[in-house]
């Protein structure tokens, strides 16, 4: 049941960037989920139910309106208390609408904040 629930939440992440970090964090426990992970997944589902009208909106532009693409990136340094690895993320926005995003744990432990950002 847990894997099915996480699969459904990951599918929702295609149009709901607001849940991606939480779903990614819960997904790390797919092989050996505990009751606390199931509770967290249910909490995300309740959040989705309460914010059912949230999503991505691509407004139409008439005439020669200029398109603006903006990107943001950030990372934490040794944010995971267990293995001290950092998490990096980015988001790209086209006219104030999110078009791509990612958040993932870095494969190695960064030795400085500069290294975590790179």
Automatic annotation (TrEMBL):
Which PANTHER family does the record associate with it? GAG-POL-RELATED RETROTRANSPOSON (PTHR11439), PEPTIDE SYNTHASE GLIP-LIKE, PUTATIVE (AFU_ORTHOLOGUE AFUA_3G12920)-RELATED (PTHR11439:SF483)
Q: What is this protein called?
A: Copia-type polyprotein
Lineage of source species: Eukaryota, Viridiplantae, Streptophyta, Embryophyta, Tracheophyta
